[in-house]
């Protein structure tokens, strides 16, 4: 009995130790959760203050732009040159005000390589004055805020030039037609060199042994006379000799 009581007391002591440790752990957990909630609340407060400061800074930068715009409206009845000059000044100040808060314009000038990450192709035109896949003209400006794209630039892009096809030479046309592989003389209805025209004798006529042998005289032939001369040669070969 004494040994069992000792073991029971030891178990009770271990249980008390575990309960105390569990209570301390729960207290630490609750304290950590309270700290996290306070940090989150402080973070939200700092974020709101940063947004308010940024908005206040932007408003201060835009106030001169508003003043100049109202001044241009008051002088709207002046000469058109002054009105245009005033509007250009307002646009310049407005751009500078946006740049001070981190706004940047996307580069899309003429000749800039087309970038699908920052450009939006609205039209593709063939152009001999611009390199392929480059910007011909910007239709609407694009902007990025602190390196992050807000909107892409709408541009007209030059298309790739079609490959130039080499024209066949005179020798190539005489040897073979590029369409069907048939010699061009066949396509034009011409006889191949060395062929005998219809109506000509296939055998040489008998020559008179009494006549002197020698080279036959050659006479220039007019191609227009071939049709009329060929039948007479075939019907009476002795006239040629």
Strand-helix topology:
Blueprint: H1 2-74, H2 80-100, E1 103-105, E2 119-125, E3 135-140, E4 143-145, E5 148-151, E6 153-158, H3 170-175, H4 184-187, H5 226-235
Parallel strand pairs: 2-6
Antiparallel strand pairs: 1-4, 3-6, 4-5
Helix pairs in contact: 1-2
| Low-pLDDT regions | 180-241
Mean pLDDT: 74
- The SS-based structural class is alpha+beta
β content, as a range? 5-15%
Gyration radius from CA atoms, angstroms = 50 Å
N to C succession of SSEs:
HHEEEEEEHHH
Please give a handful of descriptors for the protein shown.
3-stranded mixed β-sheet, elongated, 5 helices, 3-stranded antiparallel β-sheet
What does this 3D model show about the protein?
The protein is an alpha+beta fold. The protein has a domain at 104-161: Nucleotide Exchange Factor Grpe, Chain A, domain 2. Helix content is 47%, strand content 12%. The protein has five helices and six strands, in the order ααββββββααα. The protein has helices at 2-74, 80-100, 170-175, 184-187, 226-235, and strands at residues 103-105, 119-125, 135-140, 143-145, 148-151, 153-158. A three-stranded antiparallel beta sheet has the order 1-4-5. It is elongated, with a radius of gyration of 50 Å. It starts with a helix and ends in a 6-residue tail after the last helix.
